[in-house]
# Entry
Amino acid sequence: MAICDEIRQQLHAAFAPTHLEVTDESEKHRGHAGWREGGETHFRVVIRSPAFAGRNRIERHRAVHDALGRDLLSRIHALALDLGE
Amino acid sequence: MHDIDTRIKDMIDNNDVVLFMKGTKEMPQCGFSSRVAGVLSYMGVDFEDVNVLADEDIRQGIKDFSDWPTIPQLYIKGEFVGGCDIVTEMVLSGELDQMLEAKGVSYSKEAADKIREANA
# Structure
């Protein structure tokens, strides 16, 4: 499965989002550190979910890191997060 | 406590503001590190830059220490603030100003306002 789809699947399962965008921005980072041919290195994720209610920024980010897991995170270079209720 | 944890703790205890980053503030080696270092410099915040690329123990150690998988990581007066997304959001919302003021770290309010105007 493409990493993009894996991310989407995990986030759906963890947060039941009302809005979810997972964008592969690797091409914007062509030639930068961590970039590789074929993309899937730099991702941007936008989530809106009631699951974030009552959690501060660090807690929201940590919840996403936990949902994706160490293995998946180790396979990508960058993950930009925009998290809200 | 591991040696590396002690070293990291010393760094964040002995400096008001510490940015663990890829590269240095003069020569950042990653766009995300560059953005945070650039914003802090522009805001006139005096900060210690720690180049994780120069020390593999710190590069892994800081991720374990903070329980945070990515670099850059910003600490203010010993408190973990976050990475590039969180710092950017806090600059734009004015929360970083409040945090610096509450912790008695000097910065230029005027420069911070200019960043917000440019991104409004």
